[in-house]
Specification:
There is one protein chain. This protein has 430 residues and is of the alpha+beta class.
């Protein structure tokens, strides 16, 4: 750096007078003052471009950082909103999709979906069977009604055939079956009690299904005997008997069921699905519930099953609020994630602006060794050229322009903060 000679005190006026006298005696014209700098002058524009990355103290001023941060914020907002809408649609159209329901005789099904997500329940009867009812209550009714009935079936089963009956039983119910197998030889039949929507035919297709294997009672029956099963969960149950032999077989079954039903005496809503669609409104604060019942199987009835379809009316206000909440949560998580990424491994926050100009030689605070001074001033990649550039948008100055350009073309990430770089700006010193 050029040294500026200090003028002695009081010598400024005398020096100026002697210089003026010298120019008056010289044949050359005196020096002209600097021209005024206009905003349109090329020199002024080049200086503005040269110092675009620094303020008047020699620190990086990230002019593109605000636009980059703005673009990242917009992309994060768009992606968070899209993800929130996707989650809301999955809940709305998969969990509360239309549901097919098949009931046996004397069924009592409690319908109590989430009141925050569902505002109404519509029951559509798919056959013309009469006697089914939909009840509405201010609160879930208790299971304090007991009904016991018996059914006797005398069946002849050809080889490779089966017969099954369906029941919807609530928790605490009991199934008692007594059987008498008659055949020309001592053949064994299969008697199963299956929980769920898959009957014996589905199990015979794939006996390894865990949903069937862990929810069934499998029995080989011959001669006379009885089977008893307690119901531990409210669900649909199949009782089936099958002949897996190559001969005809006959069996007499006497099924006695003790079922617990919901008490419907305190209902304030009542509708017959066989006479038209029934829609039951749910309160937002919760509490109310619906119960769908079916009548007992009448003598001589060929099929004692009732088929329904349940439709759930979504409470779209809740989905809208939930979408906004999920979006806000994702944006908040993204904010804290970006905040933590700005910390160095020791947990200290990096300064928002990094100095690009080295300390002056005469600065008393820069008392460092020659090796440290060499590392401080020179490129951290090649250790030969001085640091004369910085990365955008982070503003870190760690390499020379040639090394920084190679980094920008290869990995395009800052070696200090690992942030993706967009440009490499060169530093000009005057």
């Amino acid at each position: 750096m050029d040294q500026v000679e200090q003028l002695p005190a009081g010598g400024e006026s005398s020096g100026a007078a002697s210089a003026s006298a010298a120019w008056e005696n010289s044949e050359e014209s005196p020096p002209l003052p600097f021209p005024e700098r206009s905003p349109e002058s090329p020199h002024s524009s080049s200086e503005r471009e040269r110092f675009a990355g620094m303020d008047n103290e020699g620190y990086v001023v990230n002019n593109e950082g605000s636009s980059v941060i703005g673009n990242d914020a917009k992309s994060c907002l768009v992606s968070s909103t899209a993800f929130s809408i996707f989650v809301a649609m999955v809940v709305a159209f998969s969990i509360f999709a239309p549901e097919a329901l098949r009931l046996g005789p004397s069924a009592s099904v409690l319908i109590n979906p989430s009141h925050l997500l569902v505002e109404s329940v519509k029951v559509v009867a798919l056959n013309a069977a009469k006697g089914s009812m939909l009840y509405g209550f201010h609160k879930s009714p208790p299971l304090d009604v007991t009904m016991t009935w018996s059914e006797t079936h005398k069946i002849t089963l050809p080889a490779g055939t089966h017969k099954e009956w369906l029941y919807y039983l609530n928790k605490g119910s009991e199934i008692n079956i007594s059987y008498s197998v008659g055949s020309l030889s001592s053949l064994s039949l299969v008697l199963v009690i299956v929980k769920g929507s898959a009957g014996l035919a589905e199990w015979l297709k794939d006996p390894s299904q865990p949903s069937i294997h862990f929810s069934m009672s499998w029995n080989l029956i011959h001669g006379n005997g009885s089977i008893q099963k307690d119901v531990s969960e409210s669900s649909t149950y199949y009782i089936a008997v099958g002949n897996l032999n190559a001969e005809f077989a006959g069996v007499n079954l006497n099924t006695t069921i003790k079922a617990f039903l919901h008490n419907t005496t305190e209902s304030y809503y009542k509708c017959a699905p066989a006479e038209g669609n029934c829609t039951f409104q749910l309160f937002l604060k919760g509490g109310n519930a619906a119960v769908l019942t079916s009548p007992a199987r009448s003598p001589g009835m060929v099929s004692g099953d009732w088929y329904f379809e349940l439709w759930y009316g979504r409470r779209w206000v809740t989905y809208l609020i939930g979408t906004g909440g999920i979006t806000s949560l994702l944006l908040l998580m993204n904010y804290f994630s970006n905040h933590l990424r700005r910390r160095d491994p020791l947990g200290e926050i990096e300064p928002e602006r990094n100095t690009l100009l080295s300390h002056e030689d005469g600065d008393s605070s820069a008392s460092i060794s020659d090796d440290d001074e060499h590392r401080h001033r020179h490129c951290a990649i090649c250790f030969t050229a001085p640091k004369d550039c910085f990365f955008l948008p982070c503003g870190h100055s760690v390499a020379c322009f040639q090394c920084a350009t190679r980094i920008r073309k290869s990995s395009a990430v800052c070696p200090i903060c690992r942030q993706r770089t967009r440009k490499v700006k060169r530093i000009y010193t005057v």
